[in-house]
Batch of 3 targets.
Target 1
Amino acid sequence: MSTKSPEQLSDLLRCPIGQIDVRDFDPHATPGRPNSNGKDEENDMTSELEPLLDDLQERLFAAGTRDVNAPKVLLILQGLDTAGKGGTIRHVIGMMDPQGVRIHSFKRPTSQELAHDFLWRVERELPRGGQVGIFDRSHYEDVLIQRVDHLARADEIERRYGAINDFEAELVGSGTVVVKCFLNISRGEQKKRLTERLSNPKKFFKYDPSDVDVANKWDAYMDAYSIALSRCNIEAAPWYVIPANHKRYRNWAITHLLIEALASLKLGWPAADFDVDFERSRVEALRSR
Amino acid sequence: MSTKSPEQLSDLLRCPIGQIDVRDFDPHATPGRPNSNGKDEENDMTSELEPLLDDLQERLFAAGTRDVNAPKVLLILQGLDTAGKGGTIRHVIGMMDPQGVRIHSFKRPTSQELAHDFLWRVERELPRGGQVGIFDRSHYEDVLIQRVDHLARADEIERRYGAINDFEAELVGSGTVVVKCFLNISRGEQKKRLTERLSNPKKFFKYDPSDVDVANKWDAYMDAYSIALSRCNIEAAPWYVIPANHKRYRNWAITHLLIEALASLKLGWPAADFDVDFERSRVEALRSR
């Protein structure tokens, strides 16, 4: 069987424990992708998963309505410019009921944020019970751009890897399933996507001249990602390396990982915290006009 | 022509200026609904609007990426339990790119919120430039349940109508298009929907025994809504009465109103704030492997 069941995809995409180099992962790969009679590109494999995703998310949302300590899911999206963080939110998170979703996009820290520990602004944006939280960038920027551009002292950067592991272990311990995805694109694919943004006036707003400055530091970023993925790949909150040159594969894979995360909670529907028969009689007694 | 163009639907659904009684509006009506060869129910009229909604929302989102003072849209959803506030968010807002959407559900005020003016918690949840904000309930609860259940002094309730008008006029003046929808269902429809929630264990979490207490105050709520819609129906931020017994009509109508609101901004795509040719040459010079 070349087709993998949903339960196995996380194993295929999980970043190996130990020292890794993100350059060793193939951005073109499509591990676990189901065969579909040569119609891979046309088939909307992702939308087939929508009913299952929908059912699982609603169970989580339902749990949240009854219990502030209900479980949470946190999806962390990391990757270079054009890697597909926004597209993932649009296409994957866009399938979910927006009532149960909380998205935060981490920008350059404000002066208020810089006056606090680097995790301060992250804690404020965590999902609440019953929510699926999405981080478009995250605390990992504090060991990525901050490392590459020397925006913090070397010993402070060193300290952060351990602080992140402690923070995420605590998050998981308090009922959050953490799914960390590195969207892995190739230099060629990034160049192609930046070119597209400059070829279509509708896409100008997605382009920033600093994107090229960052692209020119490609190897420094690959080094920083390799260190982050090696040092912060704890069992409770593992990293997944998502081959992201193919957008449809990327969407399908992340949808699968979310389904696995939600399914791992094994949530039923909340029991009634009222007397159903009694309430039925009360509703039956309501006037209907 | 019995079919109304999108531009006219807001006129059809706008609550008349002056003293109104919400009981005079037909919850079963489907004003402006396009004829579709007898296939009204089957046709997914709403999803046909998705490409237009998508395009308009992306223009707003794009504006927000370039200008913190970009316009905003605020959709206020009000209605009794089961009127379809959650369903509207799921089906209408669910069509939008979640990156540009900010949803807030107003619950019973906390003690911290009660210690402030009633608009304090509302101001904190307003959409930012480029966002579509959705209020699931709103500051109108402060003249609805608070009036019905005498949770505030009569003179304070009186004061609030004017405060709301001032607040909303200020919002509109600072670049927010405000779309206020009263989801109008009949007593019979509400009874039916409450019964459904008690008939399916998957829906128990949506039921609260207090819903029946509220339902038994139907006339008091209709009075309170009539006063709110009469006194807070300012030209800058009009009320729409959405017949909501038919869920598909409700979704279609609100999608249309959102499209009209977004289209009224007449947004193009943001011009490049960089030298496009120069940036193309920089991208062209990037390594591709």
Note: Chain B touches chain A through 52 residues (CB under 8 Å).
Target 2
Amino acid sequence: MDKDLLETWLNAIAAGELTPAEALEKLADLPYQDLGFAKVDFHRKLRTGNAEVIYCPGKKPEQVAAIFQALAGQTRNVMATRANLRIYRKVKAVLSDACYFDQARIIALIRDQSRTAGKIGVISAGTADQRIAEEAAITAEILGSAVCRIYDVGVAGIHRLFSQKAVIDSCRVLIVVAGMEGALASVVGGLVDKPIIAVPTSVGYGANFKGLAPLLSMLNACASGITVVNIDNGFGAGVAAHRINLLGE
Amino acid sequence: MDKDLLETWLNAIAAGELTPAEALEKLADLPYQDLGFAKVDFHRKLRTGNAEVIYCPGKKPEQVAAIFQALAGQTRNVMATRANLRIYRKVKAVLSDACYFDQARIIALIRDQSRTAGKIGVISAGTADQRIAEEAAITAEILGSAVCRIYDVGVAGIHRLFSQKAVIDSCRVLIVVAGMEGALASVVGGLVDKPIIAVPTSVGYGANFKGLAPLLSMLNACASGITVVNIDNGFGAGVAAHRINLLGE
Amino acid sequence: MDKDLLETWLNAIAAGELTPAEALEKLADLPYQDLGFAKVDFHRKLRTGNAEVIYCPGKKPEQVAAIFQALAGQTRNVMATRANLRIYRKVKAVLSDACYFDQARIIALIRDQSRTAGKIGVISAGTADQRIAEEAAITAEILGSAVCRIYDVGVAGIHRLFSQKAVIDSCRVLIVVAGMEGALASVVGGLVDKPIIAVPTSVGYGANFKGLAPLLSMLNACASGITVVNIDNGFGAGVAAHRINLLGE
Amino acid sequence: MDKDLLETWLNAIAAGELTPAEALEKLADLPYQDLGFAKVDFHRKLRTGNAEVIYCPGKKPEQVAAIFQALAGQTRNVMATRANLRIYRKVKAVLSDACYFDQARIIALIRDQSRTAGKIGVISAGTADQRIAEEAAITAEILGSAVCRIYDVGVAGIHRLFSQKAVIDSCRVLIVVAGMEGALASVVGGLVDKPIIAVPTSVGYGANFKGLAPLLSMLNACASGITVVNIDNGFGAGVAAHRINLLGE
Amino acid sequence: MDKDLLETWLNAIAAGELTPAEALEKLADLPYQDLGFAKVDFHRKLRTGNAEVIYCPGKKPEQVAAIFQALAGQTRNVMATRANLRIYRKVKAVLSDACYFDQARIIALIRDQSRTAGKIGVISAGTADQRIAEEAAITAEILGSAVCRIYDVGVAGIHRLFSQKAVIDSCRVLIVVAGMEGALASVVGGLVDKPIIAVPTSVGYGANFKGLAPLLSMLNACASGITVVNIDNGFGAGVAAHRINLLGE
Amino acid sequence: MDKDLLETWLNAIAAGELTPAEALEKLADLPYQDLGFAKVDFHRKLRTGNAEVIYCPGKKPEQVAAIFQALAGQTRNVMATRANLRIYRKVKAVLSDACYFDQARIIALIRDQSRTAGKIGVISAGTADQRIAEEAAITAEILGSAVCRIYDVGVAGIHRLFSQKAVIDSCRVLIVVAGMEGALASVVGGLVDKPIIAVPTSVGYGANFKGLAPLLSMLNACASGITVVNIDNGFGAGVAAHRINLLGE
Amino acid sequence: MDKDLLETWLNAIAAGELTPAEALEKLADLPYQDLGFAKVDFHRKLRTGNAEVIYCPGKKPEQVAAIFQALAGQTRNVMATRANLRIYRKVKAVLSDACYFDQARIIALIRDQSRTAGKIGVISAGTADQRIAEEAAITAEILGSAVCRIYDVGVAGIHRLFSQKAVIDSCRVLIVVAGMEGALASVVGGLVDKPIIAVPTSVGYGANFKGLAPLLSMLNACASGITVVNIDNGFGAGVAAHRINLLGE
Amino acid sequence: MDKDLLETWLNAIAAGELTPAEALEKLADLPYQDLGFAKVDFHRKLRTGNAEVIYCPGKKPEQVAAIFQALAGQTRNVMATRANLRIYRKVKAVLSDACYFDQARIIALIRDQSRTAGKIGVISAGTADQRIAEEAAITAEILGSAVCRIYDVGVAGIHRLFSQKAVIDSCRVLIVVAGMEGALASVVGGLVDKPIIAVPTSVGYGANFKGLAPLLSMLNACASGITVVNIDNGFGAGVAAHRINLLGE
């Protein structure tokens, strides 16, 4: 139930077109959550900047395309995560403006290309971590944040990271993406005083246990100010960083 | 090596009191990190707002007292985490202004009581989670953030949480502290579009595995925008929230 | 060994047709379990309402078809769980009345379509959890329970759940199906005073560990009255809910 | 927000005493959850039969005593779980009618001693599992269910279990409490067609991993119709069984 | 119900002292498991050689003493495992012949001291594993097996093990007790062709995880013919070895 | 180093043909393990009865065939475990007498078909556990033990197990194969006083964790006398049971 | 920033061509890491002997080929690990001298074939462990170490290992590669006083948990002097052994 | 059997005092391992430099004192690890020269104070890790290595580590001791080309899981050349580093 409808009813009572009893009945009939629904939806839009999001796994290509098309009618930017080429082709067939970010596995319709003044720095360790870093970066960009990519600066060649210190310092919030042992988050945390979101990736083998090693590593980082998202959850990091970034606008 | 010393040397060269060769040797001898040291230290102060922090476990009461006293000479606010009464008494003996936050297990010397305009909301589930919530809240306050406590609003009585919706909406960033199954983070994440830092606590038994259950639960929260810190890490959540809060000042 | 036979023997002793020693030997020889066997079989039919069940994994399509056909001669309703289309075709070839529930992966022969007066509410979180929800729902229906489906009411959009409060209240027992962090069980547990069976699903990734996260979450649910079945065990939840539902008839 | 207040406002609009705009503002200001609050509270009492419950761990004896006294003013039966003698003495001091169930670790005030016609059967394996069995039994009794205790019938001496078959059959719902390998739940599940709630206990050592072994065992029970609660969660099993038992009254 | 009683009844029927109907009633009244009980008990005695066993944890000293005394009236040898001195004193007070094996933590009443011809070899790695080795050895001896102890022959000094080859070869079945990495079981398995029961102990630290390391090691032993019992389960190993040893008598 | 050679040398010293110093050097140079080598090989044949064994995983079909052929020249029975049809065809090409046990995944050349008088009972729970049961049974048979198969007697239909009590009692040693929750081992352990080797299988899903549930269950079995092998290790159980069985011949 | 540039500036100050203030600014502007960069690069070459290394997983064949070609212009030996034939063909197309080590899964360009005087002994347990042993051996050889392979000397046939004692004694450092239970590392550690690097492999099944069993086993080895690398990390062991081996040159 | 005895016998044969047959018998009677024993013992002394080691846990103070005294008669340096003051007092009572290293928990008798020319660098992260670092350092020193301590250089203040670069470069082999997330090992591995032994400590809380986090982190370190020992195993790291250090002497 939206505010306009409520206003219409209240005006109708004031105008004598609706008796209080009738209005009460109408209000009682309405599931009270409807009001909440509208609110949440409104919040929802704010929350993800200016985009609606579809999570692809477990949905058929046609389903994704249909939801994508529906959302495209309601909001300016739409994105689908964990998508593949097959899904993209279905979406493309109904929305020719949709584009596909291969590494990030994101299908997007980007009508609003405005960006924040403050930047989110996305730092990644190895080449293999890059697809998750891109998921975070592209997500943040679609939501409206400016993003600065600082890739391939793993701890094994720590000088490469340090040579990017000035660039890192110019960002408002940082996303650190690393697999293997995930030490990069700790090192970045020891260098700067920014909010840092650490993303463990499933890159590694053996006692890495599909990302458990960097996950535990990042949760135990002795540098304070680091928070962590799920293994390979570039999307979640992008959303969280965007929300934080917005606070500085 | 600080900037003043470097300046002195450069002036000495200009004045002919030092040959370039001698200066080069001096500079080469200096561990180049000294410069980094100063820088990092400076950052460090910024990073933790205006406080220096001591982590008590593994240190003897006298050691904590000595470090506390030393830091009190260098900075305005000093805090010691995971402290107990025995340690407090040792600190109190050398710094009579120190106070002890019992639930938060924090010893603090708070000379700078200024607070941010924006508020950090600290939401906790059960009574037993409160000590970790307090660790987060007190940490953020000592660092200089205004804090709003919303306690005892667990999912089992979900109406209590909803009745605080307006208060929650008035905060800039949220810390959600919960043990048991940690569902509170997901529910709060479904209600608001703020940056949310989830703190799993070790409250629970059996298949809770000392906080593993809420940790996994929070890392898998389907509501986006949630980031997570280590089990019982109220301090880390307080620092991270403070940094995010500062962005909005 | 049935009572009649025992009576016959005792009479034979009384009649002097059987010596006590011979009777003793006969009694010792009888596998006493035979009595149990009959009983259990009888119980078995009661237990699963009016259906016999085949678990497909590890059985060849022809084997399933043969068992299915055999059971169809003994009982009114027969079902095979975790079935695929290939198995269905084999069953269909010998029992043309068999039907296949695609999402639930259940092959069924339903001759008795009577339903209970009381309803089982099957609540599911995300789209991907639906196939397990359907396994629970179809199972309960084949056993004879009326089922009410309340799907796609995840915690991230909590208003959608609340708008179904009246429907949920009209059910006698609830099955809550959720993957990711499984918080839905806790939230439903906080809203109603029904018996609740929580089904964690393997939907998720990373630190979800194939359903471990929602399993632990549900086992630790702070709302009381919740019991849990194995990850993805929609069938087990359907059977348990049906048994509980029968108590109210 | 209650209905009367809403009616007053609508009448005031109709009477011209309140403009629609003012009313809209008032309505927006009202925390809509207030209505929910009352509802949930009402539900809450229903949910736990006729008792309010306090969970002791993490609360000081005085706190428990104070809450206990407060609840005793609102409801007929009150209970505190995981309590010890020290807490009991504090409660006893303010409520001389309170009694303490030593094995079950429950403090209770039982003014309403009515019991259901149907019985909950509480079956336990070893002597060491008995305290959790008692927690379940006492909980169910305080809530108002009749309880039938069938103790010390572990699988190692399986004949003892079978000799209680008739007693087990006379119950409406069963709680099976077992540590070690937890096989008792499977065996009971193979014998009867009742709803069964399995409670793994932390009794055992080594590869038992504090109850993990029976927990996994019970979740994987091949006998269908079994649902599981957290390790050592006798209370939760008691509540769930009572709710199920009520359906048959 | 024992065989004698049954015989008495059957004779009474034959003698006309009992009508078949009366007998049937008597038999029906008897829990049929009683027969089973007797049987199992009889088996039980055989099974554990000639001893009854009490598991102490979770029982009070007085309880143990009472059970011990009762069993002492029924069987020749009685033993209580995981006992401590306090329990022993209680038992000693009622049974002055009871003795206490300190390292093995076993209280025993040994009236039948006969031993098998074949020997069980108990091999242990380090000094700290000895208490579990003793639990196995004493158990086997009380049950009636001859035992040969080969202690302190860990893999780090592998020559000590090899120097005992002849002694090891003279045993019929082997128990290998080892903590740390548990490699001793594999090495013994590579040397002899006997049935080997491996007992992992909780001796170790860090990534030993309280016996998990040797448990996994022993389960994966590449030498075939090795079977494993629970961590620290010297008693279970003793019973199993005794049963195997009896086959060769 | 064999005894003859040693004797030769000692005689040479006595004959003055070899100085003590030279002999000492020779002795020191000899790898003392050579003696061990021969011994162990001899033991090896004894150990596996009368068969040599090849473990296929990680070996190419041609490699298996070549090793198989080589062993066929040295011993009467040869077997290859975890084999598939492709490997079998390669072996069959070089040894036309080789046969393939499909369910057991064993290729065998069986020239010696003699069997022990005593029987090994192989008991399995569900249909899906049968392939591991067959691996155990076929292994034991190739080694020379008589085997009695008792399949499909899971705990969910416990009467089927009990009806086989007499058959079970006629065996000398038992192998119990079960997946899901593995309760069958405990129940068999509660019925008989034989040595029991429990084999957990990876049959199950969700919180079964690929056999972890029955593995833990069996290790914690409260019935004593049970020992356990690795998940799905039918071969190991067969070897161990055969060795135990031999003791009774 | 290199030393020459710094010298130029200091001279310019002395010459009055640069004011101290300007110099200070220049120094502050320079990323101090540049110096570190050069150093680390130099170290890097030393570190891996005389080879550059590419880790293939997560890189496309063309990417590997391009990096390979680039490195071939800078250093004498280049290697790519975890490579397959497809990648090799791409590399071969641009560098015809490249060769492929099939078992080790390494592509290499070896222009410098010099070897150390001291040898690294690579000991492996089973046939299936050999590919990881080869990864270690080939890595060490490309880096410039002489390697001595001692394969197929598992603990189940311990005499084979002992017969190689002299060869093992002739090595300077040992790499022990073993899957299953990994006991080989302990046994070798009990025989020699060399630095030993243990490599657990993922060879095994069931409770091996993909290498967890030998990993824990090796970490808990009671023989001292053993250090461990990640599961299947032959490369890491090769590098570490080479570094240790160089110390003895 | 020592070499002297063997020589005596061979001489006796040569002298005709012993017939070859008698000698053969004597030799055959001797456990052949005795030779091995001597050898291993000899190796053992080499292996641990010039010290014998006693592991205290599981031994009584008197036992440690007795073993200590015995070893003091055979070798120059003796050490007991994981010792406490109570044990020390017992040792001190019999060996007044024994000293106690409080932090390292080592009792030592150091008669040979010679040190290697090359140094072992022991680097530790936090204050709480220092006791394990000391265990490693003291162990290496007692064995005869020169040790250089570089403490309190955690990743959170990374400049402190870098300022010690020259000192680190002067060492031959490095031991890196760190708890929390263990990132220090990776960072040191990125800076130098030395053999590095990483020691995870149990310092941390929550998702640290008593050292599991740094253990996994170190095993997955992306910088190559790092090997790992068990959690808190300072002693093992000291022994391994000493052996490596000796290669460079």
Note: The two ends of chain B are 33 Å apart (CA to CA).
Target 3
Amino acid sequence: MIRIGIFGYGNLGRGVESAIRQNKDMQLVAVFTRRNPESVTINTDGVKVDHADNVKNYINDIDVMILCGGSATDLPVQTPELAKYFNVIDSFDTHAKIPQHFSNVNATAAESGKVAIISCGWDPGMFSLNRLYASAILPNGKDYTFWGKGVSQGHSDAIRRVEGVLDGKQYTIPVEDALTAVRSGANPDLTTRQKHIRECFVVAEEGADLARIESEIKNMPNYFADYDTTVHFITKEELARDHSGIPHGGFVIRSGKTGFNNENTHIIEYSLKLDSNPEFTSSVIVAYARAAYRLNNEGAKGCKTVFDIAPAYLSMQSAEELRATML
Amino acid sequence: MIRIGIFGYGNLGRGVESAIRQNKDMQLVAVFTRRNPESVTINTDGVKVDHADNVKNYINDIDVMILCGGSATDLPVQTPELAKYFNVIDSFDTHAKIPQHFSNVNATAAESGKVAIISCGWDPGMFSLNRLYASAILPNGKDYTFWGKGVSQGHSDAIRRVEGVLDGKQYTIPVEDALTAVRSGANPDLTTRQKHIRECFVVAEEGADLARIESEIKNMPNYFADYDTTVHFITKEELARDHSGIPHGGFVIRSGKTGFNNENTHIIEYSLKLDSNPEFTSSVIVAYARAAYRLNNEGAKGCKTVFDIAPAYLSMQSAEELRATML
């Protein structure tokens, strides 16, 4: 059994907890929280909730620590720190800061002899993998990533900061015509506006100036100004009834040419349609936790990403079984 | 530069030759044929065509030998034999015989200290990878592979063996309703007939009994009897004009459930739409040839499949570049 610890118990931590149940070679040992542990109720009987400060007491009890904090302030500190004591895995998703995070985590993991896997999930993660595979196969081509239809937490937060807004949810939606153009192999140049639209569902305060709210949202720099944005005002009850899920997904498409005269076109498409963004992300992380455990058992150490890990390490099946059943 | 040899010069060999041009770190050294070398004209100036019997003269000149023969009789003999002298890669695609082929190739490659990659392409190959990744991520799920729309060489050959048939081409086509059902997450049980249809374009001899030909095709065991098959009689000119390509493609779809009560459904879909089946297969093989070269330089030896190879080995870019640009 691979003994797992969960560090941070929000949506992602709960997703990891439920994913572990589907993996018969894994066992949840403890959940760590910065809150008062007695205030945290988890879904698995007999598993301890302990304070984050006590994590070092578990050095001999946990094979892989799964970090479920946020990329802004939690993971840049926690992943390098915990890699001193555990094999670790995180879902650090600030793309521009990945090289720095890699370097920080690699320093402590190489020193401790542990394996650390960073930026695991679906983007970064499975989408990154598909960008890499497709570009290696079709060097003469171009790739496109589309996100959605799905809830963007950052954009939903931005809506909620507008004066007069009580609550809101934002969906990122790929533009169907853009998808069609990419799938045709035409390798179009697409602007930000041409790739995605943004749809907002907003609960306003009673008597608020709806026209002003709509205008403020649509013209918000970085978040909405570069997109075609629609704003729907709905009631609190409608928001709860119709928009409480956290779906997401998207598409990675590469089109490329082959042949002595580049006469043949090929389209490689990978897509995800996810009812729950955090539960799917958790499921990817848990498969890679298996890889971290196995790699460390083989003597590997230091920081790794999905690019560095042979696929067979993710599976419960043996190499022989995989060749016989999946190849 | 990675120095490449091509062993066998049919559609696949030509595809490899053209793919090498797109990979700036590779160089084609020689093409080997069992025909009279003087009768074989290749598309790359200054590259030698030599007889297959002389291949051992190139032991110091070739880093990776790409085997482009057929799975029925060529590769079972050639891959283990050439792995005694070279890093090798093949596209052995008789799924049921992969374990035996692996074992044979591994024996000679482990002994010689070379790396051998077998069963590389898209199925087996990229489709296999996607089955593995998706099943590791969503253990509580089911996966489906659909092929087409594309030309099946084996079924086209079967048509041509029917008395009164001059020429013919067969397309395998996924049933749209089946794709829709799978994408819904319903995890349907699908029969052979429900998954694919077969469409045949046939050139008959003048005066042949078309009704008999159609009936013989539709009722042919193993090839057509288990499918809904349509037969179109066309002229030789129409066949040449409309059906001379070798397109193919398909879909690997896994749907799975997550959550404490399996309440959330996720769909992972990978699809290929290929103008040229052999050129795409070649492009995959060439990327993995890079991996074979690098792995052997690191001291690896023995037989491997796409399951055993970390994605970063396929790319011309360095690990740092990949993390900065693709993760």
Note: The CA atoms of residues 7 and 244 of chain A lie 25 Å apart.
